[in-house]
Design brief:
single chain, alpha+beta, 6 helices, 31% helix, globular, Cyt_B5-like_heme/steroid_sf, MAPR/NEUFC/NENF-like, Cyt_B5-like_heme/steroid-bd, signal, endoplasmic reticulum
Length: 161
């Protein structure tokens, strides 16, 4: 029987296999793409010394450990880590209701702010370690057959894998 993590790896392979031609050469030593469930991501909450600190924005999981003074234990932005905090980043908020991936109801200005921060802060500064499973899987864990990386905002296979 496959473990949950192996199932997610298998699902990511199925979804992304049609894009293999674009992945010409992967340097030796790079890690495979990882899919994070909400439970997986919650383990990287910045409260334990020596544990990586991860957060997601727009379904992209970043290792923000190098910014532990901002994201680590008792740090000002620790509320953002261990989850997909897309809405909070867009609104520049630390309110508990904003600590979610849900962008419904955001203004055009907030969406522009999200895009700017996503590109100029997170993508520019922190390594990508994976994606939230929500980005390419259905709620029941099956591959989303309608998911197409090329149709996703800021999902560039050559840049992100």
């Amino acid at each position: 029987m496959l473990s949950v993590q192996m199932y997610f790896i298998f699902c990511s392979f199925v979804v992304l296999s049609s894009f293999a031609q674009e992945l010409r050469h992967k340097p030796v030593g790079t890690k495979p793409v990882r899919l994070f469930t909400d439970e997986d991501l919650a383990k990287y909450h910045g409260q334990e010394d020596g544990q990586p600190i991860y957060m997601a924005v727009k379904g992209v999981v970043f290792d923000v450990s190098s910014g532990k003074d901002f994201y680590g234990k008792d740090a000002p932005y620790n509320a953002l880590v261990g989850k997909d905090s897309t809405r909070a980043v867009a609104k520049m908020s630390l309110e508990p209701d904003d600590l979610t991936f849900d962008t419904s109801g955001l203004t055009e200005e907030q969406m522009k702010s999200l895009e700017d921060i996503f590109i100029n802060v997170y993508k520019a500064k922190y390594p990508i370690v994976g994606y939230t499973s929500r980005r390419i899987l259905n709620e029941d864990g099956t591959p989303d057959k309608n998911f197409k990386p090329e149709d996703q905002p800021n999902f560039t296979i050559k840049d992100e894998f």
